[in-house]
Amino acid sequence: MRRRALAALAVALGVAAVLAPGAHAHPLGNVSVNHLTVVRVSADRVDVRYVLDQAEIPTFRQRDLRPPEVLARTRAAVARGVTLSAGGRPVTLRLAPGGRIAFPSGQGGLRTTRAEVRLTARTRVRGAVVVRDATFAGRVGWRAVVVRPGRGTAVRSSVPSADPTRGLRAYPRAVLASPADRAVARLDVRRGAGAVVAPRLSGAGTETARTRAAGDGLAATFADAAAGRGALLFLLLAGFGWGAVHALSPGHGKAMVAAYLVGTRGTARHAVALGATVTVTHTLGVFALGIVALGLSAAVLPEDLFPCSSSPRGCSCSPSGPACCARACAPPGTPATTATGTTTLTGTPTITITAATTTTTTSRGGA
Amino acid sequence: MSMRLLSRLLPVALAAFAVTLAVLALGRDGSGEGRAGRPAALPQALAPRASTDERIRVLQDTVRAAPTRAAGYTLLADAYLQKVRESGDASFYARAQQAVDRALRLDPGDAGALTQRGSLALARHDFRAGLRDARRARALAPDVNKPFGVLVDALLELGRYRDAGRALQAMVDRRPDLAAYARVSYFRELHGDLDGAVAAMRLAAGAGGEVPESDAYVRTLLGGLELQRGRVGAARHEYRRALLSVPGYPAAQAGLARVDVARGDLGGAISRLRRVVDRLPLPEHVIALGEAELAAGRPAAARRDLALVRAEQRLLGRSGVNTDVELAIFEADHGRPQRAIALARRAWTAARSVRSADALGWALTRAGRPRAALPWARRALALGSRDPSFLYHAGIAARDAGHRAQARACLRRAVAGRAALSALNGPRAVRALDALR
Predict the structure, then answer these.
(1) Which domains are present in chain B?
(2) Does residue A50 sit in the same domain as residue A119?
(3) Cβ separation of A175 and B73 shorter than 8 Å?
(4) Mean pLDDT lowest for which of A31-40, A88-97, B6-15, B197-206?
């Protein structure tokens, strides 16, 4: 019975750590040992920053040690536990001298431990690189390896590049966030301009890229776009360009609009307004057609849809011809002739009906 | 004129364009919302033997897709609680609590969420709140079996054994599964039927759980029962089987340390417990370590480790978790008996269980008031319990009060189950019995 009581107590200790209202409990529990390994692969070296955040209980267990001894222990654990290999062969990581140690106060008058240690390998690593953090294995807590961009490399990483804890200072407490448990980073290192392509922190396995070091700006833009950041702007610009090119292709009533402008002695302002209207209505038409095609795609193939849509288009266009004729005939020597002239000039039929011209013709009917 | 018409139409067209764009953009951004409208896709992609981490991942995705459905949060809370049982990672309690709270905000009548809030309350030793939630959950969903577990646990902890027995009978009649059998075993153990308890726990093991951890848990409990029956080899076997299910399972490792103690290998027990404590320094393991060190004649190391227990208790106290019974026993054994008495009295007021009675009796005995302790010791054994720890406490109380025959009877039975006693109390019980002969 005692055993059970104690089991319940064990459970309670955990609850205590996190359910306490207003208490400054460690967000990951009083027994947690949290560590973060920040890796930076540059052209000629690999830098590792190791951050340790120990909650109250493990700190209390080291209460008899002086701060330098705690740091020395951390350094020993890191030297043993953090390993680097390139192409399957181990690469020696050397501990930088010193390190930082602090004991911020925690819950119940107890202290916590914060330690920082740096490691470096002054070698050029390429290809498959693996960074492993085997420190404090099996302990409860946050464990993450993150990869930051270095100088002169392009790295494809199996672990995220972002650290939501800001160096183990704030832990995500959202209901949908599990503590990180990533002890191994697998990297593919190539020459580059200081970029890392890494999985996103949350959600689906979309990739994100990040560049810090001064590198090729244009390349970075493309890397960003490929990773989904800045892609919207890129796509908008590309879309604008394609639209402009598309407008030069046959159709779109360019001849008719030009003739109309000339006939009505329109100014540049009118030309812009007319062009904008055509653009807008045309685009709307494309969207409308797209939505209809999407909606019906389950039942009908889009290819089968186009012939059906031809007849309404024809019907809506045909009145414009007689209307123009009527206008041309009413007062003698009017712009209609000029219109014909333009038609022959461009060498295309006035109304080339492609799938997309529906609304263009409609607008002309309206005008 | 047509130009004027055109310039009037242009803003309209532009507005239409803007609206279209906005609709399209929203459609893109709101894709999650669109999915939310459909019934929450419950994790069909989940294999029946999926690990808890996989379950958590899939359920997190489910909740992201349907953030307004209570069911997803309830299932997620369940997975988080399972994660705590497997890893001891307390931060999942906070997540479970958040998930449960959110589920209950979305649907205050969600029986599953109420059940989980009940188990969280039990973990905080707020047995009354646990009982309340379990009752409400049962009233809301009379066909669901799960609230019965919380209900039985709460009633047992509150010392309402007759009600607990009735609820447990109903639970096992409805569905004799691992959860029901394991509680039947505990109920029989409380009433001194160790053989029946072992049989029920074997049925629980045979019924099998949804995750390897539940098998390891049941095997570990079985090991404890075997120790009480004095079958050290059988206990070791069960602990090893638990470790096969979940490698490194701390409770089973601690069980093997008890086996070491029972076999007289204190050094082995200490190094094993040290490994357990390094990984998961829960008070129960730390106390076992400290007592093994005391028994092995290493008082300095023991003092160090037992101080850790006090630090942990302080953290618990600050957090409003009620650990009166456990702390009372600890204080009686290793601290100030007067404080133990106060704690045990408070525990008895909160829950009139045999555990509270035992703690109060032992605290009074240690404080030099064995006569006052005797009625409490009797109350602790009123159900017929054969818990060696209760019997040892009762025996010492009777001896100190001058009731030699009664003391001998209690201590003889305690010694029979001394394999289940701590490294410190086992030899003490033997010595006390020898002195009485």
Answers:
(1) 322-437 (1.25.40.10)
(2) yes
(3) yes
(4) B6-15
State how far the alpha carbon of B276 is from the alpha carbons of A122, B213, B230, B360, in Å: 39, 17, 24, 30
Residues A275 and A209 in one domain: no
Whether pLDDT at B328 is above 70: yes
- How far are the Cα atoms of B310, B354, B378, B392 from residue B382, in angstroms, in the given order? 31, 8, 6, 15
Q: How confident is the model over B417-433, as pLDDT tens digits?
A: 999 999 999 999 999 99
Query: By the CB < 8 Å criterion, does A309 face chain B?
Result: no
Averaged pLDDT score across all residues of chain B:
87
Residues A47 and A160 placed together within one structural domain of the fold:
yes
A40-44, A108-112, A136-140, A173-177: segment of lowest average pLDDT: A173-177
A115 and A196 co-located in one domain: yes
* Confidence label for B320 from pLDDT (cuts 50, 70 and 90): low
Shared domain check, A271 and A144: no
Is the domain of A274 the same as that of A139? no
- What is the tally of structural domains in chain A? 3
Exposure b/e, A66-87, CB count within 10 A at least 16 = b: eeeebbeebbebbbebbbbebe
Quote the pLDDT of residue A49.
95
Nearest Cβ partner of A266 from B3, B5, B312?
B3
Q: Which residue on chain B is closest to A14 by alpha carbon?
A: B90
Residues from chain B contacting residue A177 (CB–CB below 8 Å): 95
Nearest to A29 among B89, B251, B390 (CB): B89
Sorting pLDDT into bands at 50, 70 and 90, what band is A304? Answer: low
**A354 located within any domain:** yes
* Residue B39 reports pLDDT greater than 80: no
User: Residue A114 sits in which domain range?
Assistant: 17-213
Q: Report CA torsion sign: B285, B291, B296, B300.
A: positive
Q: What's the mean pLDDT in B126-135? A: 95
Total residue length of chain B: 437
Which residue in the set B98, B157, B319 is minimally distant from A17, CB to CB? B319
Q: Same domain, yes or no, for A148 and A185?
A: yes
A135 has pLDDT over 80: yes
Q: Tell me the C-alpha distance between B279 and A367, whole Å.
A: 80
Q: Is the ipTM of this complex over 0.85?
A: no
Which residues 123-162 of A are in CB contact (within 8 Å) with B?
Answer: 138-141
Same domain, A42 and A160: yes
Residue A185 belongs to some domain of the structure? yes
Query: What confidence category does residue B336 fall into, taking pLDDT thresholds of 50, 70 and 90?
Result: very high
Residues near B98 by beta carbon (within 8 Å), at least 6 away in sequence = A173, A174, A175
- The Cα B146–Cα A150 span in angstroms is 53
Contact flag B20-A284 (C-beta cutoff 8 Å): yes
